[in-house]
Design a protein that fits this description.
two-stranded antiparallel ribbon; TIM Barrel; homodimer; alpha/beta
């Protein structure tokens, strides 16, 4: 068990993922309330909003008002999601509050790229080349290379480690051409195809090819295996995970109504803390925020833990 | 990864666990329909009902009618749960249909024994001694030694491997005194306190003490970690798991309203089959039965997989 990391870094994406998919309407004040409450739990990275087309994602039509409205907490890094020049400009208007970094985001599945972005893989490479160059031209570092559908795809089926490596090579080529310095690979199980063995194999092959690159996992719980997959990641020494409080969110483009979203932050925290891996998060506070998220969205969220309560709460009662 | 087993044996407890806790009323015909559908999925062990006091568990007041009514399938073993002489006699009336075996069932937590059974551990040992002797006197083998709350307890807190071993020693003493031949230890995470490391440590210590004893895991998903705990069990070579279709059930005595029940059978099957561990179960059929279970109980069940669909279904579409 000595290969488990001593600590991990959690990137909380609940506000961004959740409010993008919830039918709502959810008030700007509630969005701000959730972001501010998350910052009080010990989380250090919060993706606060999405600067996207409000006609396509009406839940984030008030992104500017949310970012303008929340009171930032020291030592917390707030980020935003954006996909194009317009989104980048909207984010840059909040440079004082948001940490703005560029990503090269590719997909290991050609079929998914077509369905989700209406582009071929080659067209997507061109778009990402322009996207990366645009960031660099504006003085924004591009440091992250993301691969969606890295473990399988509802439209294409299984994705092999070789396909992931080839996609990462495509991304690194774009980085080299545009002057981006990638220091993180983010592998996303966008549609819930991973299992612990596949995590081990894909990470193993990626590590063998790029031994010094940091890796982050974005694990969807579409088929209930996210927490087992996170455990496999921990065993492989992965120290960075995306997650969402309460399991907010879902997969808007997986072709499945009602599919679960990201791994729940509080279940990831419980998994780690119970095995002696520090997260910096106060789990009881986070559970309270999960319950607040349920109240805000107005329905039950996937997290079992916000309903059951933490072990520490029972330990205190039993003592 | 060579320590993963080649196959596992699943004990489906959905009917017994589910109908015991669902507010219902659920018709006898629906209970029979679920049991018969489960037998068509490739499952070989189905716990069909509970012979308990109908005033305490009204959902199983029709246990006799259910057992009399279902059409048994060859190669499927049907079992029932019972706790006392009356329950045993009720089960024995169906010796032609039910596989009847006795259990010595103890709890690693004194506080839980008190809360759940209103007995001290010593009183519970006496009761189990009488229970085992009664079975032996009636010619019923007693082969299973179960330990509830083997990883922690909402009333007592953490449970150490040493407490589990001491409880198993108590049970083996009863077995020796009453002439029972124990061939299986069943360790239950009754209130969702386990984590993968604790599974490894407790199983490791139990194995070190009794290297040749078969072990079965009964994992509740109270805090969302059941599938990671099952994976830890698989890595330790455990080949027998209890589970419930759709995640039917819940924990009626954990002091938590709305607490999740057993690990979902279909998520356990997915976890295993995707890693090359045979379960004998047709996952697509099982998912259909999970959806039938949802329809019968009239509300959404915890299983993510019955909502998302199997990977094989998407593989076939993608091919």
């Amino acid at each position: 068990m000595s290969d488990l990391p001593k600590s991990i870094e959690i990137h909380e994406e609940g506000p961004r993922e959740g409010f993008q998919i919830e039918p709502g309407p959810i008030s700007t004040a509630d969005k701000i309330r959730l972001i501010e409450a998350l910052a009080e739990t010990g989380l250090h990275h919060i993706q606060a909003c999405s600067f996207v087309n409000p006609r396509i994602v009406p839940g984030w039509a008030d992104a500017e008002a949310v970012v303008a409205g929340f009171k930032p907490k020291q030592d917390v890094e707030y980020t935003a999601l954006f996909f194009n020049a317009n989104g980048l400009d909207r984010a840059l208007a909040f440079r004082d509050k948001l940490a703005i970094n560029g990503s090269i985001s590719l997909t290991a599945s050609e079929a998914f790229t077509q369905k989700n972005l209406h582009r071929s893989h080659a067209e997507n490479l061109d778009a990402m080349r322009r996207h990366s160059a645009l960031h660099i031209a504006k003085g924004i570092p591009v440091t992250r290379l993301g691969v969606m559908a890295a473990f399988g795809c509802n439209y294409q089926g299984d994705i092999t480690p070789a396909q992931v490596i080839s996609t990462l090579e495509d991304g690194l080529r774009i980085a080299a051409e545009t002057g981006a310095k990638i220091d993180l690979f983010s592998l996303a199980d966008t549609m819930g195809w991973a299992n612990p063995m596949r995590i081990e194999r894909t990470l193993g092959e990626v590590r063998a090819r790029w031994p010094d690159m940091a890796i982050s996992l974005h694990l969807h719980d579409t088929r209930g295996l996210a927490v087992a997959n996170a455990h496999a990641g921990l065993r492989m020494g992965v120290t960075r995970y995306d997650s969402t409080v309460g399991g907010l969110g879902g997969c808007p483009f997986a072709g499945q109504k009602g599919a679960a979203g990201n791994i729940c932050t509080e279940e990831l925290v419980l998994l780690c803390e119970e095995m002696g891996i520090a997260t910096g998060v106060d789990l009881d506070r986070l559970i309270e925020v999960g319950r607040m998220a349920e109240e805000i969205v107005g329905h039950v969220l996937p997290s079992e833990l916000i309903h059951a309560g933490s072990l520490d709460a029972f330990r205190r009662k039993a003592a």
